[in-house]
Specification:
Layout: E1 7-11, H1 16-28, E2 31-37, H2 41-51, E3 55-58, H3 61-70, E4 77-80, H4 81-89, E5 96-99, H5 107-115, E6 119-122, H6 125-142, E7 146-148, H7 151-159, E8 169-176, H8 186-189, H9 194-197, H10 207-215, H11 217-230, E9 237-241, E10 247-253, E11 258-262, H12 268-276, H13 307-316, H14 322-338, H15 344-357, H16 366-383
Parallel strand pairs: 1-2, 1-5, 2-3, 3-4, 5-6, 6-7, 8-9
Antiparallel strand pairs: 8-10, 10-11
Helix pairs in contact: 2-3, 4-5, 5-6, 6-11, 6-14, 10-14, 11-13, 13-15, 14-15, 14-16, 15-16
Bound molecules: magnesium ion.
């Protein structure tokens, strides 16, 4: 793509971002070096036969054994587990790694890919939330590029092109759709279940992020992600509820100029830009028709109803492992909610409990971060009612 066609390792190819990434790759003629999935072997086999990677990985051992049989007639190598993910992330043939796995499982492979100086097209926000300082420091040390795929962060990234000095940035304004429960009170949300939360008005996404959008934790994680990516203070990030999902985020500069990126809500645009940057190519995304756009509105979020967002904003201000605890507890609590084992408002209760009980500490090493993550999950499982 651009001057040189990219060769891509795609971590998390069967999820929503993974499938859309393959749309972009197919349309652009880029090639695929590796595909990884957790356990969706049927789709993974189909993708492998279409894109001919040299390596296919299933995180799940049983699924890896299955895909090995399915691909026995090809010369595609099969690996499994965390070792397999790391092998995919560091494959010499790949110059770019798209990290589209869900959760903190993306952390180790991302760090290893950075050490191999791959371009990271980052779609795994949990990596920057848990280990933002470590990841950014490592990227700087090895000179690896991290290009955001998250639509808001891609918008910010696009807006700051041409700004030579980060000191010119006054404020990053993250837009937020408000989620399916926008305008509801805590009283109304009391009895909400998994099925209510899985209806998202605008974006089509996987289950975990859809729940994070309903609690607004997603915006909290994105707030932390933005701080890390652009090295700004929490006071320099603002959240604006924007129900139309047309403005994907804005940057206010020192001179009070505000730049915004607009477009139809379609993840294939930020995915493509992460691959073609600094060039822009034609895309499969529909153009935005300004004349049929609804009026654009912006308002402040309701932090009392959406306590997950409040907890994230508080964690963002703490040094050390607080953000890793926030993320680990949230992953565990959302997992329980998706199994109908807790109610909607209990997600925030459990995250708050973990933040109050897991001891604080430095987040300088991967071990410290993973320990905090584990402790946070344990704190959630210990108090959750089953
Ligand atoms: Mg986003």
């Amino acid at each position: 793509m651009g001057d040189s066609m990219r060769t891509i390792s795609l971590l998390g190819s069967t999820g929503s971002i993974g499938r859309q990434s393959l749309d972009v790759i197919a349309a652009s003629g880029a090639s695929v070096a590796a595909l990884t999935a957790n356990s969706s072997v049927e789709l993974l086999e189909e993708q492998a036969r279409r894109f001919h990677p040299e390596l296919v990985v299933c995180y799940d051992e049983q699924a890896a054994a299955d895909i090995k049989v399915r691909l026995a007639d090809t010369d595609i190598r099969v690996s499994s587990g965390m070792d397999g993910l790391i092998e995919a992330a560091t494959l010499p043939a790949a110059d770019t790694v798209i990290t589209a796995v869900v959760g903190n499982i993306g952390l180790k492979p991302t760090l290893e890919a950075i050490k191999q100086k791959k371009r990271i097209a980052l779609a795994n926000k949990e990596t920057l939330v848990c280990a933002g300082e470590l990841v950014m420091k490592t990227a700087q040390e090895y000179g690896a590029e991290i290009i955001p795929v998250d639509s808001e962060h891609s918008a910010l990234f696009q807006c700051i092109q041409g700004s030579k000095d980060h000191g010119e940035i006054k404020k990053l304004i993250l837009t937020c759709s408000g989620g399916p429960f926008f305008g509801k009170s805590r009283e109304e949300l009391k009895h909400y279940t998994r099925a209510d939360a899985l209806k998202h008005p605008t974006w089509k996404m996987g289950a975990k992020i859809t729940i994070d959008c309903a609690t607004l934790m997603n915006k909290g994680l994105e707030f932390i992600e933005a701080m890390r990516l652009y090295q700004v203070t929490p006071d320099q990030v603002e959240i604006a509820i924007h129900r139309q999902s047309i403005v994907h985020s804005l940057v206010e500069f020192r001179d009070n100029a505000i730049l915004a990126q607009l477009g139809v809500p379609d993840m294939r645009l930020p995915i493509q830009y992460a691959l073609t940057y600094p060039a822009r190519m034609e895309s499969v995304v529909e153009p935005l028709d300004l004349f049929s756009c609804p009026p654009l509105s912006f308002q402040r979020p309701d932090l009392e109803t959406f306590r997950c967002l409040k907890l994230a904003l508080q964690s963002a201000r703490k040094p050390g492992v607080a953000c890793a605890v926030l993320n680990g507890a949230n992953e565990a609590a959302v997992g329980l909610f998706l199994k109908d084992q807790i109610k909607f408002l209990e997600i925030a209760d459990l995250v708050e409990h973990a933040l109050n009980t897991v001891p604080d500490g430095p987040a300088d090493t991967l071990e410290q971060i993973l320990d905090a993550d584990r402790a946070a999950r344990e704190a959630v499982y210990t108090v959750a009612r089953f």
